[in-house]
Amino acid sequence: MNSGIVESFAQMVREKGMDKDVLAGIIEDIFGILVKKKYGEEATYDVVVNMDRGDIEIYLGREIVEKVEDPNRQITLAEVNKKGNTENLEIGDDYVETLNLASFGRRLITLAKQNLNQRIREIEKEVVYNEYSELIGEIVVGDIYQTRRNDILVNHNKRELLLPRDEQIPFERYRKGNTIRAIIKEVKKTQSGPIIIISRSDNLFLQRLFEIEIPEIYDGIIDIKGIARSPGERAKVAVESHDDRIDAVGACVGMKGVRIHAIVRELNNENIDVINYSEDPMIMIQRSLAPAKLKQIELDEEERKAVVTADNDQVSLIVGRNGVNIRLAIKLTGYEIDILRQETPLEEYEEDMELIDLKEELGEEIYNLLINNRYDTALEVLKAAKEKKLNEIEELSEEKIEEIIELIKSQYE
To answer: Which residues constitute the domain of residue 186?
Structure first.
């Protein structure tokens, strides 16, 4: 019976990766509780567990007396002799008896099993917590086994990992059974066990992918100096080479873009701009806003603010779709960036456009309004706006005039 119990515990050690000595200590504690429940809190006992041999031995010590007052701590010589007094013990000596597990009864054995299961669950939780706490910031690969409305559950080495909505890449589709890569972001302790949170939207996930795909970064020849990211949409990564013979950007992009494309595919086609890092904030701002061409940059280093001047046709490139380009440049450089438009002189527009070619963009009502006021071309409208002549048209508000001008200029861009 004893060996069977120990073997079942040894199996837990193998399956759950628990420390053998720790489990032996738990078993000793639990069977110690059994002894105290049957023989009282003051009982003298010893529990010896041998995991290798598969054995549990429980010893109860009692004093040999002439008259028993406390049967849990005392025993008569006559009773000792009945049990087999092989050591010729006498009154006043201590008698140590080996207890049989069956003598504790079914109720106490059941209680012991419940306590053991509880303690083992607690230790298992601690083992999982410690294991994944050491993996924070590292990439793991798992299989999606459940998709909820907001969260994704991932199986990794028979452990449950949680991918919350705010750690997912927006618009990325997750299907049950698919393999997924993510970083361990956080491990939380709860009463029901540790919650292991993984992330695909964290900047560190992008950094780890660079380290995997680009050996020069893994080897420390190239450093990642900064990352700004809008997950699933666009990212900017500043890199610096410690070897003058190696071009940091070229190494990251790879021959025909093969290295960077592997990362882009992993991130659901997220556009990645790799730029050379510079300690000069003006150069960093200029590189961060590429491919836009800037005419001037004014810095306030104390306030960490920058004003960039650019031609009107470059503003859309600076801002980017939904403002993502300038937003990432602000994150990467640490400077608040304001844009100062420099209007393109009318004489620099290469050619004029007939207003009828813009009828669809302007809308029929605005088109007819401009035509009826004898404005037949795009440059005529821009010139009239500059001379404030469009303000004479009662049906046009300042906001509407501004909207018309922006629309026409966008056609030139």
So the answer is: 135-201
